[in-house]
Amino acid sequence: MKRGLLIAVCGLDGAGKTTQINLLNNWFQSNKLPCEITKQPTDYYRNDRRVRRYLDHGECEDMKVLALLAAADRRYHLSTYIEPCIKRGTSIITDRYLYSSLAYFKFRGLDHEYVKYLNGDIREPDITIFLDIDPEITLLRVRDRDGQHTKYEEKDPRMFKEIRNYFKEVLPAATLLIDATLDKQTIHERIVSEVSNKHSELNGGVSVGIK
Questions:
Q1: Which residue ranges are tagged as binding site?
Q2: Which of 40, 89, 116, 119 is most deeply buried (CB count within 10 A of its CB)?
Q3: Which residues does the annotation place in the binding site for ATP?
Q4: Is-contact 155 58, C-beta < 8 A?
């Protein structure tokens, strides 16, 4: 049985993650390779009333509580969904992963080593992709998209600049860093090349067509 890949797609909002995730999923399907899309944190975390109080209104008595909730959500998601999929040969593309928690919680005042400790020995992705974009472009896109419903943190113009810097501190050394202002097909081709090579490496040299 072929082994599935865990592929984490990271980046600031507006960097084109959704577009590239969908294109990559289509590539898997066209090559008749099982693949599923997911996201972290999951909706279970995002809809928690304590999380929503902070995201919507900036109210949080203890940021460590949110970090613990995020870590628990990630571990449960991995053990009940991601790991079983990979073992049966299904690749997983996740929109965000541990590195988002490390970057965002550092912005919120927690040391990233503490957040990493909370997350324990969770698996490192087979491929981590970071779509890099100018924070000012992100800010404009988020405000244009969300209007009056912009999240509490996103009202701070420092946010995206600082989080971008924090991402670059915590991403794995082997991260595929891509300029998100390139045209979407060029970005897709770079991602597919990386994925095809990794799939071949982990499955005994079984090659996959690049389309």
A1: 11-18
A2: 40
A3: 11-18
A4: no
The pTM score is: 0.91
Q: What is the pLDDT of residues 4-36, one digit of tens each?
A: 999 999 999 889 999 999 999 999 999 999 999
Q: What CATH number should be reported for the domain holding residue 109?
A: 3.40.50.300
Instruction: Decide if 208 is inside a domain.
Output: no
Containing structural domain, residue 105 = 6-202
Residue 116 falls within a domain, yes or no?
yes
Examine residue 155 and state whether it is found in any structural domain, yes or no.
yes
Among the listed residues 5, 20, 21, 17, the one whose alpha carbon sits nearest the alpha carbon of residue 186: 20
CA 183 to the chain's CA centroid: 20
CA–CA distance, 75 with 101 (Å, rounded to integer): 13
The Cα-based distances of 36 to 25, 28, 52, 95, 173 in angstroms read 7, 9, 27, 11, 25
HSE at residue 196, side-chain half, CA atoms within 13 A, is: 14
211 found inside a domain: no
Would you give the DSSP letter of residue 86? H
pLDDT, residue 143, reads 66
Query: What's the rounded Cα separation, in Å, for the pair 45 and 91?
Result: 23
**Among 162, 93, 158, 101, which residue's Cα sits nearest to residue 128?**
93
Residue 95, CA atoms < 13 Å, CB-side half-sphere: 18
Contacts 24+ apart (CB under 8 A), 52-60: 54/152, 55/151, 55/152, 55/153, 56/151, 56/152, 57/152, 58/152, 58/153
- Residue 210 and residue 205: Cα distance in Å, rounded? 15
